[in-house]
Every structure is written in structure tokens, then in C-alpha cells.
Design brief:
This protein is mainly α. It is 69% helix and 3% strand. It has a two-stranded antiparallel ribbon with strand order 1-2. The N and C termini lie far apart (92 Å).
Length: 126
Amino acid sequence: MASEKDLITENPFAILVRRMNRIESQNEQILCYLQGKESSSASSDEILTIDQAADFLHLTTQTIYGLVSDRKIPFSKPTGSRLYFSRLELIEWLKSHRTATVDEQAQQYNQSRSSRGNRRGKGQVA
């Protein structure tokens, strides 16, 4: 690093350019790191054991065994004895069991009522 005397005599714009280049370089490194983390986490389909699946779903292993026994959860059993789960399949399974909100239920109810009203009205004379 330059001494204090060198900094005083050095062109201040050269100092700024050098510092800006260093900041831009660090910024690029951070962006590359973040993009790498984002793409690897989004595209990698991690295989989980039953304990890892239970932790991921916040359920007990007994509950997982029950869901497997009832064939209500996606799983693999390649060796015939050990259970494995795909993280992406578990996420999709969770999404497929989403419960509608009260507003969504009311909207569905109103839509079904209006469609029933349209069917009745076709055969009647006004």
C-alpha cells in the first residue's frame, strides 16, 4: 500500500479509479457467487433419507412411514428396504395439497351459483 506521502502527491483521480476498479471487481465476484448459489439450489434435486424428509416437512418419521404405507407421498425404494425422497417431488406434493383461502372458497361458491343459475334460465320463458 502507498505511504501517506505518496497519497498526497498522487493524482486523486488515479486513486479514485483504482478504488472503483477494486469495488467493481468485488461486486462481480459477489454477483457470480450469488448466481451460482441461486442456480445450484433451484436446479439440484436432492435425494433425502426418511429422517431428512421428516426434518424437511417438519413431521415425525412415524408420520412419514404412515404416508408411505398409504401411498400418499411420493417416494422411492430402489433397494427394496430403504426409503428415499426427492426434495422437488416433496415440494410439488406440498403445493398440490394447498387449501383454498376463505376468499377463494367464496369466489368458487359464487361462480358455481352463477353457473347453476345460467343453466336453469335456459329452459324457462321470461
